[in-house]
Amino acid sequence: MRILLAGLLAAFAATSTSAAEIKPRADQLAFRDLYKELVETNTTLSAGSCTLAAERMAKRLKAAGYPDADLNVFVDPAHPKEGGLLATLHGADPNEKAILLLAHIDVVEANRDDWVRDPFKLIEEDGYFYARGSSDDKSMAAIWTDSLIRYKQEKFQPKRTLRMALTCGEETSTAFNGVDYLIANKRPLIDAAFAINEGGSGMLDDKGNRVVLEVQMGEKVYQDFQFEVTSPGGHSSQPVKDNAIYQLSAALGRVGAYQFPVTFNDTTRAYFKQQAAIRGGETAKAITALLANPKDEAAAREVAKDKAWNSMMRTTCVATMVNAGHAVNALPQRARANVNCRILPGTPVDDILRQLTTLADDPAVAVTVIPPLSPTSPPPPLTATIMKPLEKVAAEIYPGTPILPTMITGATDGAKLNAAGIPTYGIEGIFVDPDLGNIHGLNERVGVKALYDGRDFLFKLVKLYATQ
Questions:
Q1: How many whole angstroms separate alpha carbon 104 and alpha carbon 170?
Q2: What pLDDT, on the 0 to 100 scale, is given for residue 21?
Q3: In the chain, which end has fewer C-beta atoms inside a 10 angstrom radius, N or C?
């Protein structure tokens, strides 16, 4: 579920990624065939099968020489179509912890009547691949599978074991989730020094120039809360002061007027420092002042004019749904609202519950957490172990492109791994247009050259991680 950060398309002059037709290398054609098979395997929750997609990728790995013992298509009996794949390339040093390569293979629903092209056919047109999941996240799942095949073909022996997990359920919060299942049931098979996941793409400007390469280091925590007021009700011709709708509305008004304090972590501090250098002028002055003093209200107001920046620097809570009353001529007996919060990593959900209860400021308003309770953990560390190899490979494939650490304000399965003690980084290396390739929307796409370059980037980067 990639929700990337806005406000990045700024003053860097970078190399253009042309949408012109390219002539694929032989190895790229082999990758395209694998990618096509994965994309064209429907994995929507309503009509698809992640299990089938996992089996097809396992078949390719087996054909490349992986023994059955290193391939595990895992399926919960209660969810026969929501299976996934674990694959292992053993390292030479058993004392070194593994690297986990994670990608989800489920996709958002797509209605054929709304799309210009069949969403479940890979179509190459005008320098782009179009299909549901062409970007999110089958691009990365295909790259991981293809990389393991290439390593085997090269007889590459990593120092660290490489583990790949292709999972289902990331796109639907109420569905069976493969990462949750693996943590609970197969933890030894995914245990790792760190994991690489979706969440950090490259950003292009509207002319196709590379602007910045993102590295996701942490993400906000998703949690819903319910506000509820109950009342005996009565006839609308005899109104009373304690009206459930008014009481709920007043509580929501107080939530809407409140802003959580500005709080920086290592990732967001590094992000805003680089943004100050990029932007310059009054924006840079405001960012610099806020970094020096997060309680500087004037600076906070200036920086918060960018809604993405506002979300990065504080917890946010917003009312998203309301349901109240039962008849047009009766006093409401019940009024409910959903308040959706995106919580800074490391902040306990209970802390936010207490703050929302304080803001409701009315004993008649019951504030509760809506299950499931999201895991919370601090962001993974910004270390040279992660950054130095990344900088080296980026300089080779994307010379001159700045690297920007980010904390996404959406959600991926990385939050679950971080909470389970496996530091997880969003490193995709695939550059996307300013509209993010319309992921989750109509006519989802990814640039052909961008995908092939991202494939080379991740192939070389994982090799470097596995041998350092």
A1: 6
A2: 62
A3: C
In terms of Cα–Cα distance, which of 446, 54, 390 is closest to 194? 390
pLDDT in tens, 337-365: 999 999 999 899 999 999 999 999 999 99
pLDDT one-digit tens code per residue, 229-284: 999 999 999 999 999 999 999 999 999 999 999 999 989 999 999 999 988 999 99
Report the candidate in 426, 416, 346 with the shortest Cα–Cα distance to residue 386. 426
Note the pTM of the prediction, 2 decimals.
Answer: 0.88
Are residues 232 and 178 part of one domain?
no
Using CB atoms within 10 A of its CB, is residue 133 exposed (0-12), middle (13-18) or buried (19+)? buried
Task: Enumerate long-range contacts of 147-150, CB under 8 Å, 24 or more apart.
Answer: 147/101, 147/455, 147/458, 147/459, 147/462, 148/61, 148/64, 148/66, 148/87, 148/89, 149/34, 149/60, 149/61, 149/64, 150/27, 150/459
Shared domain check, 191 and 205: yes
Residues 208 and 343 in one domain: no
At 157-205, the pLDDT tens digits run 999 999 999 999 999 988 999 999 999 999 999 999 999 999 999 999 9
Q: Is the same domain home to 183 and 40? A: yes
Residue 4 has pLDDT above 50, yes or no: no
- Token code pair at residue 169: 């359920």
Check which CATH number belongs to the domain holding 340 and give it. 3.30.70.360
3-state DSSP call for residue 361?
A: coil
Q: Which domain holds residue 461?
A: 26-218+379-467
Same domain, 244 and 332: yes
β pairing state of 221-230 and 431-432: unpaired
* Residue 204, strand partner residues: 210
- Concatenated DSSP letters for 415-453? HHHHHTT--EEE----EE-TTGGGTTSTT-EEEHHHHHH
